[in-house]
Amino acid sequence: MSRKERRRLVVMEQVKAGGLTLVEGAERMGLSYRQAKRVWKRFREQGHWGLVHASRGRVSNRRLPGTLKEEALALFKRHYDDYGPTLASEVLEEEHGVKVHPETLRRWLHGACLIVPRTRLRQHRRRRERRPCFGELVQLDGSHHAWFEERGEPCCLMVAVDDATGRTLCRMSREETARAALELLEHWIERHGVPAALYVDRKNIYRSDREVTTEEKRTGTGALTDFGRACWRLGIELIFARSPEAKGRVERKNGVLQDRLVKELRRRGLSAIGETNAVLDDFTSRLDKRFARAPASAIDRHRRSPGRRILRETLCWEEQRSVGRDATVSYGGDVYQILDGRHGPRPKERVTVRRRLDDTLALVHGERLLRFRRAAP
Fold first, then answer.
1. Residue 205: exposure state from Cβ atoms within 10 A (0-12, 13-18, ≥19)
2. Exposure string (b/e) for 212-251, b if CB count within 10 Å is 16 or more?
3. What is the model's pLDDT at position 18?
């Protein structure tokens, strides 16, 4: 008997013995007097069995067919034994037409000892509230993982997550490098616009501890990496996290991706970075439909993209070089001849060598692009 049924039995025994009136018994059981009279009648006619719920032992009208449970468990054991109940429920419906609610599947899997309940770690930090506007803050991080399992080498997935909505963009690369970060930022800007701020960790890709140069002192920017300089020119504020928990939004999304994306790549049979990047936008779009949320404010804090040409000249690497007496500049083991003649920079003046994301070069003097060619060795 349940606790409620045992309590009713005790009250009915007291009423039967004359220790309580039926009015007092109804109050103790939390029932109306009319309902207490019905309970008292069943107790007198059937004894303690009259207090047991009449549906006990009956099959529920909403019970799923037994063959559905057997089919779902068989498919799980055969194909999806490392999936969680929620993802397994989605894939069973998409791939096999077997529709089972995630919580129902969770109970079946626990009952069959196919999954072990996860224990949650004790939370010791207060979660920061989301920013209200889309584009107000984008969290960026690199996730190193065996994304292709045994089919390929471990890679790094660059992940950008909007703080207000949870909308996500990803790019696969070999390592977490300045190139990978710049390419992901370019992809975000082309898709959504220029965000107001980026939340990143304190790796030397994003933050520099070197001494400030004369030019940086003049502009007041401080010591900047190539990524930091690109963000400064685009008007993006860089916020540096002091712990992984500080940018928990993207860290939790990394966990989701390490579960779902790995299985998606396995189902598609993908094992190369190029072919993976070709399907990532479709994958994150489906992920956003399920997990993204509406922002608290309808204001979009993204600014319009400055255009492909400006982005090409902004998202790049830059180094300073001195001009030789023969109007040449050395860079990367090669010599480049400046073709601007008397309108070009003078010997010993400094020019900027700019290497773009497509690995093409540009020479810049002041704000002007110089004409040049590669000199014969």
1. buried
2. eeeebeeeeeeebbbbbbbbbebebebeebeeeebbebbb
3. 84
